Amino acid sequence: MKINNIKIFAVAILASMTAFNCSDDDDSINIPDGPDFSGTYIQQDQMARPAINTVLVNDGMKDAFNTTVPSNMGAMFAEPFQAKLEALSPAYDPANPTDANALGFTAEAFAGVLATDVLTVSLDGETTFFNPASGATLTGRTLADDVIDVELILIFGGEEGLSNPEVPGLVSDNVDGNDKPFLTSFPYLASPHM
């Protein structure tokens, strides 16, 4: 058995030495000037607010949603989003169009906000996805913001949100933190698991 292993090892070394060859044309090293941006590029995905595209965009419309310019999204997607919100959550009763979420948005108003998939940012206030204590909402997003819980609260919590949710079992994904601490300096993201 040792002889076969030695033969295989010798063949592997010989093959690697044969595959690595040198040439004498190293006087002309071709270093590109920079990245090549020629060609046609198209947008493939759009997800400013996580899970909104996944949950609220109807099947067959995901490609259209991903490639629609944000200024056109509201007109195309607000109505189907409203129908989906009303179908998913008893917190939005279609028979009562004044039913609202913790932000005071009716299904129609909230669908209009969500249909334009951009992440708004406050330039002079708190940057947060949702802070009921300060009243800042959808003014940006920090790495530590629990975006999925916020979205679940706004869809299933009703007018009182977490204090008395209309659908208590659906206002949290029960993931309360990152699996690794964020860094204190750029790039701030936790290092990946190896």
What are the key terms here?
mainly alpha, 194 residues, two-stranded antiparallel ribbon, single chain, globular
Overview of this protein structure:
The chain has a domain at 52-170. With 194 residues, it is an all-alpha fold. The protein contains six helices and two strands. A two-stranded antiparallel sheet has the order 1-2. The longest helix has 19 residues, at 70-88. 35% of the residues lie in helices and 2% in strands. A hairpin with a 4-residue loop joins β1 (130-131) and β2. The model has no long low-confidence stretch (mean pLDDT 83).
How are the elements arranged and paired?
Elements: H1 2-19, H2 52-56, H3 62-67, H4 70-88, H5 107-115, E1 130-131, E2 136-137, H6 147-156
Antiparallel strand pairs: 1-2
Largest sheet descriptor? 2 strands, antiparallel
What is the strand arrangement across the widest sheet? 1-2
Order of helices and strands: HHHHHEEH
Poorly predicted regions: none
Summarize, please.
This protein is mostly helical and about 190 residues long. The chain is built from 6 helices and 2 strands, in the order αααααββα.
